[in-house]
Amino acid sequence: MAVDTVKPVSASSAAPSPEKTRREVNVLAGFGHAFLAVWALLIIAPLVWTFLASFKTNEEIFGDAWTMPGALRLDNWARAWSEANVGQYFLNSVFVVSLSTAGTMLLGAMAAYVLARYSFWGNRAIYYLFVSGLAFPVFLALVPLFFVVRNLGLLNSYVGLILVYIAYSLPFTVFFLAAFFKSLPNSVAEAATMDGASHTRLFFQVMMPMARSGLISITIFNVIGQWNQYLLPLALLQGEGAEEKWVLTQGIANISTSAGFDADWGGLFAALTMAILPMIVIYAIFQRQIQSGLTSGAVK
Amino acid sequence: MRHGKYPFVIGFLAAPVTIYVVFVIAPYAQAFYMALTNWRGLSPGQFIGLENFTRLFQDDVFWKALQHHGILLLALPLITIIIALFLAFMLNVGGGSQKGVMTGVWGSKFYRVVFFLPQVLAVAILGVLFQAIYRPDGSGMINSLVAKLGLEPIGFLINPDLALWSIIAVLVWQAVGFYVVLFSAGMSNIPKDIYEAAMLDGATRMSMFFRVTLPLLWDTLQVAWVYLGIAAFDAFAIVQTLSVDQGGPDGSTTVIGMEIYRNAFTYSKYGYASAMGVALFFLTITFAALSLRVSRRESVEM
User: Fold this and answer.
1) String of DSSP letters for B218-240
2) Which segments constitute the ABC transmembrane type-1 domain (chain A) (predicted)?
């Protein structure tokens, strides 16, 4: 853009005086600053409040909400971890999500790679079959899914839940990674093939390492998505002994719904903090990748 | 053609395609058929044609849920986008021109990290958290402040007129950060010299926003609207965990997801629940198609 030709115009009387502009900038900037700070406070305050409440007694919790806890009561945390089974739910979530994310990444990368870099009959059909899954609401499939899982004898089992997590994570994973594999240069692949690398070796030893940044983004995306999943475990982990298998979101939602006034509120807040804290830590470490990963998915 | 291509292709596709077809495609296909039966889980259901749908359209609860989706569909995107747009504008060009380069306000990086944070928290967990925050007496985080001001406590979740809006507020609270980042990405694609030219022409920050940023961001806004609209149809976890009495008080916050879950897993009306799922499917698709069509504009050449 030719800035030079614009300059003389701005110097003319048509432009508002510099003073007026400066005042307008200051007012807006001041208002903007205030709004940014207020919004940041709105995000942080509930989280800090929960953290503080995790050290309070029931009496303190039902008193004024804005008083500090009388002491650092770590026994709330201990109770939540062991008696309210949050420790168990937490480990269940870790177990399920690590296996299902690993499975999603392996299968998703395999499918995306083949669909992106090999031409064969039915390639486009399979690709669109995967991508169409992005458009459907999970709710539509909920009832039949329940019966598919039940008929396979996988209801109330981790195998069933993990397979379902993988299946529902595949559309986005394949969609995202296919574009990524397509963008990788051909020359390296050709050189490896000349050196006698098999297709499988080419994939695991050349292509996977080259696609590392894309794989990391989508791994984080899947970890967050599967860790936060609520509907699928709710529908699929039911029946005899289901409570021991519950994942974290489910367990905490249940503590809260079954809690009456005599309930252990300090324990509930400790449980909430335990559910929130690891996500904040992971977010703090990976926030750059998380933000770019989640938004690059949105801007298709 | 390299040899051994087909065994390799088939070997790599077999597992993912099988899992996907069994757990995603097959259930979707069955849902459409199941919606036409009166299956209740015990005996094999009979084909009853569109009877579930006629019943659905006479079901007051369904209409009420639909009405709530209507409110969500308007309020959620509108409020979220307005707040996110303003915040993103401040973060990216609010600081004015520094040596000819538009910058965000002081502390932009910090704000960007904080705003996005709720996005990584589970909606179900947030439901439980906000239940405590919204508590109707002095022990609730907000009502404690309200009491200090000497005002009557607000029954966020127990007042049928307020309950849905209290839920929408949580959804907005969570969503804004994502759209701030999304819009920031869009804004960074706008060439700096356009702003500079506008600046030299003496454009105010306000007119710069409405005449430069907004039109050039139109595509991103459209994506945001569609995403938030779909989220408005998807609301379930938050209603299940936050609302009084699962969709209450008195059905004032119920959504279709809640009704599908209730009909399927509480009343075992599987056919009926599937019919709701199909209705939801068509609503979502129609919404996405309509909003993409309506908001289509001549894109600005840069």
Assistant:
1) HHHHHHHHHHHHHHHHH--HHHH
2) 90-286
